[in-house]
Amino acid sequence: ATPSGEDGPAVADDTGEVVGDDTGSVDSGDSGEEYTEAQVSGVSTRLHEDHENLLYVAWEQGAAGDVWVEYSFDEDVWLTTPVSAVEAGAVEHVLLGIPYGEEVTFRVGNSLGAGPLVTSDASATVGDLPSGFLEATVSVLGDADDSWQYLLTGVASANWSRHWTMIIDRQGRAVWAREADDGVTMYPQLSYAGDELLIDHNTYWGGGWDDGASSEVLRLKIDGTVVENHALPGLHHPFTELPDGSLVWGAANADNSREETLERLWPDGTQETVWSCQELLVEVGANTYCGSNTLFWSEARQTVTFSLYSVETVFEIDVDSGSAVRWFGQLAESWTFDPEESAFWWQHGAHFTADGTFMTSTKISDRGQETLVREYSLDEGSSTLTEVWSFGEG
User: Fold this and answer.
1) Which of 155, 175, 192, 205 is positioned for an S-S bond with 241, CB 3.0–4.6 A?
2) What is the pLDDT of residue 208?
């Protein structure tokens, strides 16, 4: 990060207004040369009305240029907003990823043709965790891949009466939180484009308890603005978004408790049934009910993996043709396992990895309670899943 100015820190009072040095003077980084022309003036801050750890920094820009904000709340760690080109006038940037209750030091950066320039440091404190927030204990492996910095997930109270969606950092600190308005949230996720949050409110397990008839998915911006509200009738567990903007989900059938279908909602509001679980079960001679828990889109394979815990089997489905390409697990005509003891049971989170392998959680045996993760390579010729890695035993 560019070193801060030499004029002494500016300090924000309880109103969020920056007090102290407000001359707009800037430093040119390591050169030590001070620019006296007020390129940045009137620096102030505000907190988002609902998400009080979203800190907005505003100022008057004296000339056109590339601008950013550098900020820190952990010792010797600085973050920066994306650089944006602005004209002279009012500018505002939002600072994200700040844990609730933290004091934040920040400085406005400019590139005005004379190298990177930054204002003197200022500070502000963001709001505390929302009332009723459900805190979770998070464990992270010491050598876990550090290419990711945040995790979008959900947490529910023990009786399922309250559900929160949250984003946590690598230390397990909440940096974004939203309580479900109604129903149960199980599968919060990023939109396919990665610029919005998709949060499910299913009414199968809570809310209306109406077999999911009123289930919906909210499309939100990071500031909580609801962009769109999608009705997904029958939604009770997983859903996902496809590249074309359509949503697919596992839908319960109020008239047939044994059936579940894979439904698709197109961007124009048209809904169609993609695949019937019961139709396939009848084909392979299975007499049981259908219940899903995972649905993931594979970009490389152009298919979805649809996990049904009720038959301890994962289906790979071509959503355009509506056909099950193959399936892995305990159902008849499933691929075989090598070795046999690497079979999975009561699987969750089944998906294809970026390396082309297949990964899922599993119980250690058909009657065991211990949970582990198994990863397999695929042999199309012999229809075999060969275990290449596992974790969690013991």
Assistant:
1) 192
2) 84
For the record, the structure tokens of 230 come out as 């999608």
Q: Say how far apart CA 307 and CA 295 lie, in whole Å.
A: 6
The pairing of beta strand 247-252 with beta strand 197-201: unpaired
Pick the range with the lowest mean pLDDT from 134-143, 256-265, 333-342, 367-376.
134-143
Q: Which two tokens stand for residue 378?
A: 């695929």
Taking Cα atoms as reference points, which of 285, 271, 284 lies closest to residue 326? 284
- Compute CA 257 distance to the chain's CA centroid, rounded to the nearest angstrom: 31
Cα torsion 321, 324, 326, 327: sign: positive
pLDDT range class, residue 316, cuts 50, 70, 90 = very high
* Nearest to 85, CA basis, from 58, 66, 70, 69: 66
In a 10 Å sphere around its CB, with 0-12 CB exposed, 13-18 middle and 19+ buried, how is residue 386 labelled? Answer: middle
How far apart (Å, rounded) are the C-alpha atoms in residues 366 and 345? 6
pTM, full prediction: 0.87
Output the six-digit token pair for 10.
């500016």
Q: Take residue 52 and report the two structure tokens written for it.
A: 């009080």
Comparing 189 with 29, which gets the higher pLDDT? 189
CB atoms within 10 A of CB 28: 18
pLDDT digits (tens, 9 = 90+) for 35-90: 444 688 999 999 999 999 999 999 999 989 999 999 999 999 999 999 999 999 99
Structural Rg of the chain based on CA atoms: 26
Q: How far lies 224's CA from each of 54, 239, 269, 318, 338, in Å?
A: 11, 20, 23, 33, 47
Helix and strand totals (H; E) in the chain: 1, 33
End-to-end Cα separation, the chain, in angstroms: 44
Write down the pLDDT at residue 4. 38
